[in-house]
Design goal:
D-tyrosyl-trna(Tyr) Deacylase, Chain: A; two-stranded antiparallel ribbon
Length: about 150
Amino acid sequence: MIAVIQRVKNASVTIEGKLHSEIGVGLLILLGIGQDDTQEDIDWLAKKIVQMRIFSDSEQKMNLSVQDVGGDILLVSQFTLFASTKKGNRPSFIEAARPEIAIPLYEKSIAIFSQELGKPIQTGEFGADMQVNLLNDGPVTIIIDSKNRR
């Protein structure tokens, strides 16, 4: 799994001109699910992200997690994170999981992130044409790959 994590002041998802979900202070997570991803990837990623200390404390040092600040999470599926641009100018998405694999893993991800955060999270809609709006705070943007745990 590949996750692009953005610390935000607020974020929202609009689908077909209607507000689908929104959060205030927290994390917008764009989640790409690959062919070889499993429950183990979800468990590791959710725990890592929820505990990641990327919010400022009273001394303006990144020492607090989204949980510590009472923040929210907006989780949006994004298969294009698995784009391969090796050949030509049109990206290939062959490494992204097919919907029959990706949808159940995305649904499990929602449950695990909610469990780790200790409250429900907000989401996009798998496969929908979404407009994602955000106010990046910092900006702080981090990319994590569950297959490359460095």
